[in-house]
Amino acid sequence: MTQPPNAALRLYSGPLSMFGAKVQIAALEKGLDVALVMVPFEMQRLYQPKHPEVLRINPKQQVPVLVHGDLELFDSTQIFEYLEELQPEPPLWPAGLAAKARARLLEHQSDEVYFPPIVRLMGLQDKPQDPVAIAAREASAAYYQAMEMLLVGRDYLAGPYSFADIAFYMAQLFGERMGAVMGDDTPRLLAWRERLSQRPAVRQVAGAMAQYLLSQGRPLPAFLAALVPAG
């Protein structure tokens, strides 16, 4: 069914949802008016109790969830693809079949290749010499080198600024927090991160996440601390 032009967009996310943040940034970049619903979240209990709409819509019981009229979607990439067709300008995929496919692959790799080692680092910040932590940092460092090479002669991972950049920025934000830091051996990647940090949509979403972390007494990487809203 075609959505009525005045149907409200409603996004369910969480204060530390990397995947929800990806969608938020994309919606802001496109100038879409999206009502943001932050579901209950607490550091110890996490997303318990689950929001009833998230439970109803997503079999995985996770944010993000998007509601637009009678359409209900989950999964950040699926939601983004819908927003890209709903509001094609400005585009967040490059033009051309092959270029778009490469950008989509980069977005997928951020979630499915880069991020799993970061998940393994969670809870090991006080055990940096644990073999699992060492292997995870090594995997992250190898990924950083691959992204460094992609940035030769370009400002963004897939050519023009795209959802691939948004995805890796948010994933690396968590990577940096967990100890998988980018160093001086990836100067182009560090410049890329600073470039993204200066985009208003990124500053708004990542800055809110940084502010929440500070409210919970959690340390911030320097690049993230710089995004905390003044006052």
Can you give a write-up of this model?
By secondary structure, the protein is an alpha+beta fold. The protein folds into 2 domains: 9-86, Glutaredoxin, CATH 3.40.30; 97-225, Glutathione S-transferase Yfyf (Class Pi), Chain A, domain 2, CATH 1.20.1050. It has 9 helices and 4 strands. The protein has helices at residues 18-29, 52-57, 76-86, 97-121, 131-150, 163-177, 187-197, 200-215, 222-225; strands spanning 9-13, 34-38, 65-68, 71-74. A 4-stranded mixed β-sheet has the order 2-1-3-4. The termini are far apart. The mean pLDDT is 92.
Q: Characteristics of this structure?
A:
alpha+beta; Glutaredoxin; four-stranded mixed sheet; 9 helices; 4 strands; 8% strand
**CA-CA gap between termini:** 45 Å
Order of strands, main sheet, comes to 2-1-3-4
Query: How many domains?
Result: 2
What's the architecture of the largest domain in CATH terms? Up-down Bundle
Note the beta-strand portion: 5-15%
> Helix and strand succession?
EHEHEEHHHHHHH
Sheet of most strands: 4 strands, mixed
Task: Compute the CA-based radius of gyration.
Answer: 18 Å
**For the record, what CATH class of the largest domain applies?**
Mainly Alpha
**What is the helix content?**
40-55%
Q: Can you give the mean pLDDT?
A: 92
Number of strands: 4
CATH topology of the largest domain: Glutathione S-transferase Yfyf (Class Pi), Chain A, domain 2
Low-confidence runs (pLDDT<50, min 5 residues)?
none
- SS content category: alpha+beta
Treating each run of at least 4 consecutive H or I residues as one helix, how many helices? 9
The gross shape turns out to be globular
